[in-house]
Design brief:
The chain is built from nine helices and eight strands. By secondary structure, the chain is α+β, with helices and mostly antiparallel strands. Strands 1-2-3-5-4 form a five-stranded antiparallel beta sheet. A three-stranded antiparallel beta sheet has the order 6-7-8, with helices on one face. The N and C termini lie far apart (65 Å). 40% of the residues are buried. Bound molecules: adenosine-5'-diphosphate (ADP) and magnesium ion (MG). The site of magnesium ion (MG) has 3 residues, from loops.
Length: 322
């Protein structure tokens, strides 16, 4: 009787998955999974598994206090997908109490990821060896702008990080494919700890009084692209939608308040994430306004910029808002 009830529950979880978050890229109920290799990392276990001839990665955190990571990773991958198919890996949750090859603790949730192409930028020789776009607890900085000006995908990833309060974008959490000169964001499992939207708009206001100017043309375009990407994200993902997806993912992971695996620490993180989803959305909108003012200032100083389509479109939109 108990097994029937559990099977029924798992079925419901699986069906629910099809309508929440990312399009399922594997069918966890029926797929045949072969475990290829397992590695113990500092904060997680990673296992490479093969399903229908394709390699995936299964990740599980090593500490119970970090279990909300699965929800953050899945939410971030879902939001990232609206920015294009290749900007980040895809992620699905493997629920708590669901046995799956590569999982170390069956009663905890885990995640399955599509594999990013290339290699992380950590310790690699590349033009990005010295790049630092990790926002940590400080938020957006002046020295990040030249990096954004070097590659459009870095702007998109920075926007995503600000939108999701992802403070941990060190070079190990970014894959680079030198053959195609493209990036793929991974590891977005620690979101909504710091108010990165608020820090961004406060920092940029301070920068404007200190070292923001002069901006090169590429840097100006990078800031405009950052602004446009953030505008796209706020238009596309309301806080209500994000909260609803977040809550569904929490359920899917098996981390609801009544569950045995949801510790007080995880519950506190859930509450913090929910508050910041709302708050950061409004802070990002403020940041968009501040960026708009800065770009207008640059155009006044360098009217020649009006020859570029992106500037023309920006001014047209600003005009419409007034
Ligand atoms: N989608 C992916 N594709 C390829 N490798 C990955 C992917 N996700 C994680 N990895 C590998 O697993 C390592 C640990 O995963 P990560 O998500 O960064 O965990 P942690 O939160 O412990 O840092 C990464 O440094 C990377 O080498
Ligand atoms: Mg990492």
């Amino acid at each position: 009787m108990k097994t029937i009830a559990i099977k029924f529950l798992m079925g419901v979880i699986c069906v629910t998955y099809c309508i929440i978050g990312q399009e399922p890229f594997v069918d966890m109920q029926t797929c045949h999974v072969r475990l290829i290799k397992r590695k113990k990392k500092e904060f997680c276990y990673i296992s490479f598994v093969e399903i229908d001839g394709i390699l995936y990665l299964v990740k599980q955190k090593r500490q119970q206090g970090h279990l909300l990571a699965v929800v953050h990773d899945a939410l971030a991958a879902y939001i990232a997908q609206s920015l294009g198919d290749d900007i980040a890996h895809k992620v699905m949750i493997i629920p708590a109490f669901h046995k799956f090859p590569g999982k170390i603790y069956d009663d905890w949730p885990a995640t399955i990821h599509t594999l990013a192409v290339g290699a992380t930028l950590k310790n690699k020789r590349s033009p990005y060896k010295k790049m630092n776009i990790k926002q940590a607890c400080q938020g957006f900085r002046r020295d990040m702008i030249p990096w954004m000006a070097k590659h459009r995908q870095l702007i998109i990833i920075m926007a995503l990080d600000i939108f999701l309060c992802n403070h941990d974008r060190h070079r190990g959490n970014l894959f680079y494919n030198a053959k195609t000169d493209s990036f793929c964001a991974i590891d977005m499992d620690c979101l909504y700890k710091y108010s990165l939207g608020l820090y961004a708009h406060q920092n940029v206001k301070r920068m404007a009084e200190n070292d923001l100017f002069p901006l090169t043309i590429q840097e100006t375009f990078a800031l405009l692209e950052l602004r446009n990407t953030l505008q796209f994200l706020v238009d596309r993902h309301s806080p209500q939608e994000m909260l609803s997806i977040f809550d569904d993912l929490v359920k899917q992971a098996g981390l609801t308040q009544d569950s045995l695996v949801c510790s007080a620490r995880v519950q506190a993180e859930i509450d913090l994430s929910r508050n910041l989803i709302n708050q950061n959305y409004h802070d990002v909108k403020e940041f968009i306004v501040v960026l708009g003012h800065i770009i207008q200032q640059v155009i006044v100083l360098q009217p020649v910029l009006r020859n570029f389509q992106i500037i023309e479109d920006f001014e047209k939109k600003q005009h419409e808002y007034r």
